[in-house]
Design brief:
The chain is an alpha/beta fold. The chain has 16 helices and 21 strands. The longest helix has 24 residues.
Length: about 475
């Protein structure tokens, strides 16, 4: 288990020092993480919980960490001694990995002594934010492929080793069937897949010789890259010739890969050539800077592609480089009482929700999600009575649910600093994502102009926020 305690921003440590010096470090505090609405990020796939738990369990300052902090000459010896015994002892609730989540709702809730809740901010946003970003991108690609398999192979273009390995994990959660990343396969049990590069073909005297050599090595898994010289005049005919030789020996070739050119036209022509040669089961794999939009367009153009290899634009979340996760204080203990806190801003989007919150997903009788409802944690959602919910900004937009089911989304991850239970396997996380996806209406998940999913507030939460805003107005007038 890797110790990432020092993976933080300096201001977290300067605040800790301030809390320590002012005797505030042990005051109970509640923080939540959420993400903000943005074009291209109207929903997300939750990921990164396991790595965040690993971080919490390994959180401790080692001697070399303290020596480095001492060298900064910003902290006294009393504080460094305090850090030596620093451990996380609080509670953390989190929405399970694979869940479909929406902007503005709490996806992680931390209830801990103030210093502890503050320190973990940067690592939480990094670990959960990055994987959720990549899982979401992968999910969009997976949905665009409409049932075709997607292979993630972006390691060489990832922003470093961790981004490549954890990105492959997140991509698998999001819907990719396999990865080219061998380390990710070893670490997480993700199926690995891949073929050869153009350099393999160029290493032989002829394309046919290269194909024969590769097929000899992998007679039952021969996926041949056919665009090194001329796809339709050379590559596909040579592949078919080698496939015929394999078939004569009792083997079943896998297929071909296209990595350049007009993928729609080439795949249609290649499919016809393969079928005419009796290789109807041979797959056509395509790559070349693919993303969800290009895959959608290629399918609309009738492309005959069975497997999509998606690299750079998936592993880097091309078009959206950051998750936009936010971590804010909601409550702080004062004289033994947990007091709601609110952050104000001239920008209305940045005004936060106060109080210790819960979030519920509301389902209709058919099991389809109709809205998420953020409440204060002591509220009870009564499924036996009609429930009227409303848009927190346009309050005249209301909906009354007669027969519904409510599910609490935040689940225990840490209790008293210790894991609250066994985490699900990666296969279970994928299954959960599939079930979640099936319960969300298509219009909320579509690639272009999705309908915003309802994320509403309870009456009490709405009133508390309004009262605190008005109280601030009164103080400003004095």
């Amino acid at each position: 288990m890797k110790n990432l305690t020092m993976m933080t921003d300096l201001y977290q440590l300067t605040m800790l020092y301030g809390y320590y010096k002012n005797g505030m470090d042990q005051r109970r505090a509640v923080f939540t993480m959420f993400f903000r609405d943005a074009p291209g990020l109207r929903y997300a796939v939750m990921a990164g919980n396991a790595q965040f738990l690993d971080y919490i369990q390994a959180l401790r300052f080692e001697e070399e960490d303290l020596a480095y902090l001492r060298s900064l000459k910003q902290f006294d010896e009393g504080f460094l001694a305090y850090l030596k015994g620093f451990r996380f002892t609080g509670d953390i609730d989190i929405i399970p990995e694979g869940s479909i989540i929406f902007p503005g709702e709490p996806i992680v809730r931390v209830d801990a002594p103030l210093a502890q809740a503050q320190l973990i901010e940067t690592s939480l946003l990094t670990l959960v934010g990055h994987q959720s970003l990549i899982a979401t991108k992968a999910h969009r690609v997976y949905r665009a492929a409409k049932g075709d398999r997607v292979m993630e192979f972006g390691l060489r273009r990832a922003q470093g080793p961790d981004a490549g390995v954890l990105g492959a994990r997140a991509a698998f959660i999001g819907g990719c069937a396999s990865t080219s990343n061998v380390l990710a396969g070893q670490a997480f049990g993700i199926p690995v897949s891949g073929t050869h590069a153009h350099s393999w073909v160029m290493s032989f005297d002829s394309e046919l010789a290269a194909f024969r050599a590769y097929a000899a090595c992998f007679p039952n898994n021969a996926l041949l890259l056919v665009d090194t010289f001329d796809t339709l005049e050379s590559g596909v005919p040579n592949a078919i010739r080698v496939f015929e030789e394999l078939r004569a020996k009792g083997h079943k070739p896998l297929g071909i890969r296209l990595d350049s050119g007009d993928l729609a036209y080439l795949s249609i022509q290649a499919r016809e050539m393969l079928d005419q040669a009796g290789f109807e089961d041979a797959i056509i794999c395509a790559s070349n800077d693919l993303d969800e939009y290009l895959i959608r367009d290629l399918k609309q153009q009738g492309a005959r592609i069975d497997l999509w290899g998606v690299g750079t634009k998936l592993i880097t979340s091309h078009e959206r480089s950051a998750f936009g996760g936010v971590y804010k204080m909601n409550a702080l203990e004062t004289d033994g009482v947990l007091v709601p806190k609110i952050k104000l801003s001239d920008n209305p989007v940045k005004v936060t929700l106060p109080g210790r919150q819960e979030v519920y997903r509301l389902y209709d009788q058919a099991g389809m999600a109709v809205a998420d409802l953020i409440t204060l944690d002591d509220e009870v959602v009564d499924e036996t009575r009609p429930l009227t919910i409303f848009d927190p900004q346009d309050t005249w937009k209301k909906m009354t649910l007669q027969d519904f089911r409510a599910k609490k989304l935040l689940q225990p991850l840490v209790r008293g600093g210790q894991p609250a239970g066994e985490l699900p396997s990666l296969a279970q996380i994928r299954a959960h994502r599939e079930a979640e996806e099936a319960s969300i209406w298509e219009q909320h998940l579509r690639l272009v102009y999705p309908t915003a999913f309802k994320v509403d507030w309870s009456d009490r939460l709405w009133q508390l926020r309004n009262d605190m805003l008005h109280e601030n107005d009164k103080q400003g007038e004095q």
